[in-house]
Amino acid sequence: xxxxxxxxxxxxxxxxxxxxxxxxxxxxxxxxxxxxxxxxxxxxxxxxxxxxxxxxxxxxxxxxxxxxxxxxxxxxxxxxxxxxxxxxxxxxxxxxxxxxxxxxxxxxxxxxxxxxxxxxxxxxxxxxxxxxxxxxxxxxxxxxxxxxxxxxxxxxxxxxxxxxxxxxxxxxxxxxxxxxxxxxxxxxxxxxxxxxxxxxxxxxxxxxxxxxxxxxxxxxxxxxxxxxxxxxxxxxxxxxxxxxxxxxxxxxxxxxxxxxxxxxxxxxxxxxxxxxxxxxxxxxxxxxxxxxxxxxxxxxxxxxxxxxxxxxxxxxxxxx
Amino acid sequence: xxxxxxxxxxxxxxxxxxxxxxxxxxxxxxxxxxxxxxxxxxxxxxxxxxxxxxxxxxxxxxxxxxxxxxxxxxxxxxxxxxxxxxxxxxxxxxxxxxxxxxxxxxxxxxxxxxxxxxxxxxxxxxxxxxxxxxxxxxxxxxxxxxxxxxxxxxxxxxxxxxxxxxxxxxxxxxxxxxxxxxxxxxxxxxxxxxxxxxxxxxxxxxxxxxxxxxxxxxxxxxxxxxxxxxxxxxxxxxxxxxxxxxxxxxxxxxxxxxxxxx
Lengths: 320, 262
Description:
Chain A is mainly α.
């Protein structure tokens, strides 16, 4: 069989991962730029629910009707938070949207050949986890969540979105023009949207690239055969496939097919793989690091891991 | 006299490199080697995103007042260099031989769904489709005769049991989610095809009496790839014909019914 050099494989995998994700990151950057330029705080304040439960359900509902790949969702959520969308809604949306959308649900259904327990399990696990994370951050302000625009190592200056544009006068309380414009942000227009899209893409692509390098290194150099040793133990197999989901960083549209190929593993372990991967992987961790504060990144890593592990085990005991 | 400050120079440079990356995406979407990284069904997505990215980069390069540093510029430049190196064929890939050629629609569409050999009619199918078919275990499909194309894998352990493996990479989105899919096969008249060779195998599925309830997830640890080898069924070969390496060795499509993607 053709066996390419592992380094060749590594570079090919980096490119495959990056170019697979790049269109979605660009789309996310574009949506984020449109939100930045055209969605006003006033509009959102008027229309968003005030309660925490309503905020969670809004985040889940938005995930269903505004599907966003995990590679593109981070910039969108960053802009939504900037605009005053409650953290509960924004973070619930961020974790749920890559999974509970029609495209991914169909691919899950096909990959597992109509196995409804896997489809429902995926939706339930992700919805509970996303809602719990959203709930956790419900009392936090945006300043406690979003990372300030600090320079990266060795970099003169990272431009925050819109920093190149002149600041507009602050919004005056009681403004009732009803025009839908954001009075606290800069200029609008296609040119501004394109520039902001470029800025956001350049910023987040560094983190995407870092994640792709890490995931490709795992794929090219780490022997996955060690997993076979734990496939007969429920707890260990769930933990092992969760770890693999984080390391492999497979797209949420394709991960069900990869999970279905782990033939010797219990269904609970396969479920854990497809539930955790779209919420937490090396690419996402790197992008979380570029968008959120360290403590938030820590919670985004730990809480979904613990919840998915526990829920998968429970699901495994109940279903299989 | 116009003074160009380094951080503004870097900002312009990185925007131009971004435009270059966009152009690379655009050309990649038309490239005959696109399938080596991504499933060809995503060409439109890559091309559209490439065009938009190039436009964003060019517009950003023309905007005055942007600032940046050397790190981001260097990283993006390195990425562009690696992309161009890949485009020149610098990185060989798993399952792809020197004879790999362009992916064209005509190659997909020229296929008739059945072929007759030695008076027997065989259904053309690829390994991934046969794998799903075997898992579903519908009797009327299991008993049919099939022909498939695959690479041969032999190990001392398999050979001692009288088997060799037929494998092919199945790719859903990109190379990163590629899975080796395969079957164990029995040779004709005890003759094993050479390791790594490409063969067209004509035969039938045969349920193994002492087969494990679940197939093993790994076959060849040296490949370090996720493998799905069906061990509930053997592919009992009627005939094994050596063929040239496939111009597109990966499987990008799984059809549930005839005509299969083959």
